[in-house]
Specification:
The protein is an alpha+beta fold and 296 residues long. Helices cover 30% and strands 20% of the residues. 41% of the residues are buried.
């Protein structure tokens, strides 16, 4: 049977993100169990009120609400990525084992990478039709052509959609990938900069007027693990509206807030459609019963 990320056992001491980081919050960009329960209550309230904000999604929203609420009431972990508690529990194993592997591989030989291909933009009403498995295949194709997947080392990339209510007809979902990369794959990523999808110009209709920033961002020599690893398993969508600066260039807000309703409901229903593996691309990382087997 093919092993999945959510099935991984938690790593042993000292690679337990919820206990061994020396930080009260445990999983730094995630939540403690108590915080995850509180977040799920907020999400359940939004689902209950779906009929007020998006009647066309009300039936699906109530079905998701009831499934999460029943699990919480019985003391179980909801079986849905729309649940903050499920996401936290599902990510503890992978984060711990990547942390362990990165330490053994050498944190100085790893990098935090953000990839922002220019085709990961959708009008709000189109987001439910986004298929992350197709996006993974598209990204892997770019990595193959650039020689990244064939280079020695390992890589884990997580999909992260952010919402901008100030663009498009009724908001825009702006997707990108956050990853941890080790070995010669770091240098191989530089070849992506010359590919059409990763050129800095903002030419997509939903990003015209935006400030130009690198579509391939690499920070080498990781410290304070597992904090940067957690960023690849963020597990919630942020609201980052864009605003024109003094020169009239659109700049994204530095503050990250909660996605407004009804887009929060839309995001939860979208998350409920997928599994953790659908949102994570791996290369050079083989899942075993004892953790990840990393390519040398």
């Amino acid at each position: 049977m093919r092993l999945k990320l959510a099935d991984m056992r938690r790593a042993k001491r000292p690679f337990r993100p919820d206990l061994d980081t020396g930080d009260a919050k445990g999983l730094i960009v995630g939540r403690t169990s108590k915080m995850a329960h509180r977040e799920d209550r907020v999400r359940l309230k939004a689902l209950r009120e779906a009929h007020l904000h998006c009647p066309e999604l009300a039936a699906a929203a109530m079905d998701l609400h009831d499934r999460i609420a029943r699990a919480v009431a019985s003391g179980e972990i909801p079986n849905s990525l729309a649940s903050a508690l499920y996401w936290r529990e599902a990510c503890m194993g992978p984060v711990g084992h990547v942390w362990k592997g990165a330490e053994e591989y050498g944190a100085e030989r790893t990098a935090l990478v953000t990839l922002r291909p220019r085709d990961l933009l959708w009008e709000a009403e189109d987001f439910m039709g986004v298929n992350p498995i197709v996006l993974k295949a598209r990204l892997r194709n770019s990595l193959d052509r650039a020689g990244v997947t064939g280079a020695p080392g390992w890589m884990l990339m997580g999909f992260d959609p952010e919402f901008d209510s100030n663009r498009g007809r009724a908001g825009v979902w702006d997707g990108h990938w956050h990853g941890i990369v080790g070995g010669e794959k770091i240098e191989a990523l530089e070849a992506l900069r010359g590919r059409r999808a990763f050129k800095n110009a903002r030419v997509h209709p939903l990003e015209r007027g935006m400030k130009e920033q690198p579509r391939v961002h690499v920070v080498e020599g990781l410290v304070n693990l597992p904090h940067p690893i957690c960023y690849c398993f963020k597990g919630w969508a942020c609201h980052r509206p864009s605003w024109p600066n003094a020169e009239g260039v659109l700049v994204r807000s530095k503050r990250k807030g909660r996605v407004p309703t009804p887009n929060l409901i839309q995001w939860m229903l979208w998350m409920d459609m997928w599994a953790l593996d659908d949102l994570v691309l791996r290369n050079g990382l083989l899942i075993t019963r004892n953790g990840f087997l990393m390519s040398p």
